[in-house]
Amino acid sequence: MKIIVLLLFPSVLAAQIDDAGLGYVIFLSVAAFPHFVVHEIGQPFRRMFPPLNPLRGRWDARCHGVRCTLYFAGQNVYYSDDVARQRNGSMEKSATGARILWPDGQEWVSTIKHRHILVKLPDGTVAKFHYVPPGP
Known about the structure:
The chain is α+β, with helices and mostly antiparallel strands.
């Protein structure tokens, strides 16, 4: 039993773990192992599929040749672009899209299709926002 402890743990820990402690360590590692494996296997899929229900996170698009970003956090929406425009607003989600309401009374109507958010801008053009997964 002491040989296994020496192989699995540094020598400092080996002197502090008795047979009962070793059994507890082995039990925890066996019980927790499937959770960690499933979590790591699923990680790429969580990054591939955007969080649509509820809308959250960062979404990017090209609006008139400028990079635009929508950031959803709960019912709040934050907009920014490369021209240094920034806005804070609110969102009302429906089954097929969302209405983005800005403090100046402007309303953007959006539709969710094929893992993208299509936003009809005030000038009549449609911006196609795609999800930007968080960094590793």
